């Protein structure tokens, strides 16, 4: 069985100058960025927002950009990190990082900014011209006695509506309902700076489960008795696909729930999902159940 979930992504910047005494001035308040093609692709293979770069270019960003137009400096110093979620619809989880440039490192005039996975030029996940309060490109000035703090917030939006589809397995048509899960819990919706995949492949597999009850609201999980699978595996990412398949196997001794399996839960580095199935999977100790999930991602519109 193959089930697909799509997660839209968006990012925002804020730039602040901080002096040694702790006083601050806002250089540019929150403004959106462009997540680049190579940034979306990078999410399938590894960490993508470990660094920040600033520059002095003035050309508007394009999807195919790979570097700042005129690189000035980069940093991998993460001064602060905050995870959270929106308390009401539209629901999204966010990771907010403050990247700090040391005294004198980013001194001077700056007009572009990006998040990257290296401090040297290139390898950008996102890029933007620095914007003023009206959304127009502007130039900021960092003084010699100021740290530059670049705050970046990456959001992963939970799908607001269900996805329904049918799959034929061994001659039986199964109807699936895919729904977001635990959308107000930052553990599951704050994007992780890792290759997209299951969140607990090396752990207890407690967030990948089968249930004999119904799927819940998007703030909840399925009901009923549950069981964990034998193995969970992140399959190899296909370059430029912007999707990753993940395989769950319930062997002979797992998933043998009273009344059958009527829902499953899966949690990834960019969101958590639940799937209801009808009719139920009549999993028994003489059957192995293999489920293949697919999570995909794109720019939020």
The 3D shape can be described as: elongated
Distance between the termini: 29 Å
Strand residue content = over 45%
- Calculate Rg over CA atoms: 22 Å
Give the helix/strand class.
Answer: mainly beta
> How many strand elements?
21
| Proportion in helices | under 10%
Rounded average pLDDT: 95
Order of helices and strands: EEEHEEEEEEEEEEEHEEEEEEE
Biggest β-sheet strands, sense, barrel: 8 strands, mixed
- Number of H- or I-type helical stretches: 2
Low-confidence sequence ranges: none
List its salient traits:
6-stranded antiparallel β-sheet; 301 residues; 50% strand; 2 helices; mainly beta; elongated
Helix and strand layout, with pairings?
Elements (H helix, E strand, L loop, with lengths): L1 E18 L4 E9 L1 E2 L1 H6 L8 E5 L15 E5 L2 E8 L6 E10 L6 E3 L1 E5 L7 E6 L10 E3 L3 E12 L5 E7 L2 E9 L5 H4 L19 E3 L14 E2 L3 E4 L8 E8 L10 E8 L2 E11 L7 E11 L2
């Amino acid at each position: 069985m193959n089930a697909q979930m799509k997660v839209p992504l968006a990012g925002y910047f804020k730039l602040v100058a901080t002096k040694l005494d702790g006083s601050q001035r806002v250089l540019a308040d929150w403004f959106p960025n462009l997540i680049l093609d190579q940034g979306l692709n990078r999410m399938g293979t590894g960490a993508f927002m470990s660094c920040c770069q600033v520059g002095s270019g003035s050309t508007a960003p394009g999807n195919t950009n790979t570097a700042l137009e005129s690189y000035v400096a980069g940093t991998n110093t993460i001064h602060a990190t905050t995870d959270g979620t929106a308390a009401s619809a539209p629901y999204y989880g966010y990771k907010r990082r403050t990247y700090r440039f040391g005294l004198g490192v980013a001194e001077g005039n700056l007009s572009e900014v990006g998040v990257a996975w290296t401090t040297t030029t290139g390898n950008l996940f996102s890029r933007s011209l620095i914007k003023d309060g009206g959304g127009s490109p502007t130039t900021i000035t960092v003084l010699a006695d100021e740290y530059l703090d670049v705050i970046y917030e990456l959001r992963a939006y939970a799908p607001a509506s269900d996805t329904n589809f049918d799959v034929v397995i061994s001659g039986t048509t199964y109807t699936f309902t895919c729904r977001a899960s635990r959308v107000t819990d930052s553990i599951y919706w704050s994007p992780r700076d890792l290759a997209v995949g299951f969140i607990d492949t090396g752990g207890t597999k407690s967030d990948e489960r089968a249930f004999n009850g119904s799927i819940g609201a998007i703030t909840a999980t399925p009901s009923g008795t549950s069981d964990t699978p034998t193995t969970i595996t992140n399959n190899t990412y296909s370059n430029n696909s912007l999707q990753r398949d993940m395989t769950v196997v319930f062997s002979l001794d797992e998933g043998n729930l009273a009344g059958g399996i009527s829902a499953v839960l899966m949690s990834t580095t960019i969101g958590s999902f639940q799937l209801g199935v009808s009719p139920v999977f009549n999993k028994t100790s003489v059957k192995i159940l293999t489920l293949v999930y697919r999570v995909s991602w794109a720019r939020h519109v």
